[in-house]
Amino acid sequence: MREGILVINAGSSSIKFSLYVSNGDDSPLLSSKGQVEGINVAPHFIAKSPDGAVLAEDRWPDEPGLSHEALFKHMIGWIESHLDGAELKVAGHRVVHGGSQYSHPMLINDDLMVELEQLVPLAPLHQPHNLAPIRALAKVHPGLPQVACFDTAFHRSNPWVSQTFALPRALTGEGVKRYGFHGLSYEYISRRLAKLAPAQARGRVAVAHLGSGASMCAIKGGKSVASTMGFTALDGLPMGTRTGTLDAGVVLYLLQQKGMTAKEIETLLYKQSGLLGVSGLNNDMRVLLESSEPHAAEAVELFTYRIARELGSLAAAMGGLDALVFTAGIGEHSPPVRARVCHLSEWLGIRLDEAANADGDAELISALDSKVAVWVIPTDEEMMIAEHTREVLWSLRD
Ligand code: ADP
């Protein structure tokens, strides 16, 4: 019997699913994917085949208040009637925070749910939305094994110096430390690079995950040793609408001198800053690259400058650099951004093959005389969750 593996990635306004089918030892095969989006505004369900053909679509224009749970049930109903001859055996969830303790995916039980609830204050914008579908699925499918895959888990191998803020120890003990995020993406890239270039994957690798959320990770000997995101996903690189690294004194200034509330500051730092804030135009890199506005060009310059500076910092954390990988929306699709970062990083021995960089399909984009191999590798966090989830399911049978 072919086994169905359901992957759920839930946020505040959307719930995404990917359904995989596994025959045995090969990688799980994507069978369909889709999402409910526009939750609380104009709910819209869409399901697609792996090649992008629309399989189903529903809208509820007159019912903006439909709950997450009701929409999730609708989605599960569609999935169950499109299992393609497979039997649903397990579900894997992307859960943003696994705290200090979880360095691996975990089979979900009541005790784990209590622990994950306790981590909500560390990720209030994401964790509650990640946990809600776990409860909803347990109601519809009691007994179906569910697995939590954490964005923080891959970084638990970071040495203490990389995880610690120079704060009094009591606060560190409370959990105010650097966790790092995008771990499922970095783990996937690390496994892919191990197939493409095993010797490099065993060396010192920096990965730049440049999507609407953006971060970088230093991976040494296959293990994360440092990353640019910290206590929250606000740290590090400027992003579509997030500031990235900010002198904490700016937050004090906003509070004390400008009288802003915590909520107003949260909105400023998460939603109004980054590429959008600097350009005053848009958070989408495509729009900025096409624009002739000077502030759009400055936003791109600041973004690439910060990536190059962080690359130097990550190389320092690893004692050198053997490979650089670009991934996620901007990393995979933007030759100009990759070119600027590589040119700023020539001091590290990076030499770009300009033609390979411009060619949309090339995986290796460094020149032959480059001391550092530069790759473009598409990430697939859902596949990583599917593989982890299947491994946990199999471990139950041993
Ligand atoms: P998310 O973090 O939401 O998963 P993605 O990894 O899909 O995001 O990246 C989305 C971003 O990728 C978009 O905001 C856009 O700026 C950027 N992007 C996508 N295609 C291109 C492109 N061809 N050139 C430049 N940027 C692109």
UniProtKB/TrEMBL annotation:
Pathway: Metabolic intermediate biosynthesis; acetyl-CoA biosynthesis; acetyl-CoA from acetate: step 1/2
Chain positions of site Transition state stabilizer: H182, R242
InterPro entries: Ac/propionate_kinase (IPR004372), Aliphatic_acid_kin_short-chain (IPR000890), Aliphatic_acid_kinase_CS (IPR023865), ATPase_NBD (IPR043129)
Cofactor binding notes: Mg(2+). Can also accept Mn(2+).
Active site: D151
Function: Catalyzes the formation of acetyl phosphate from acetate and ATP. Can also catalyze the reverse reaction.
Protein name: Acetate kinase
Protein's organism: Paramagnetospirillum caucaseum
Gene: ackA
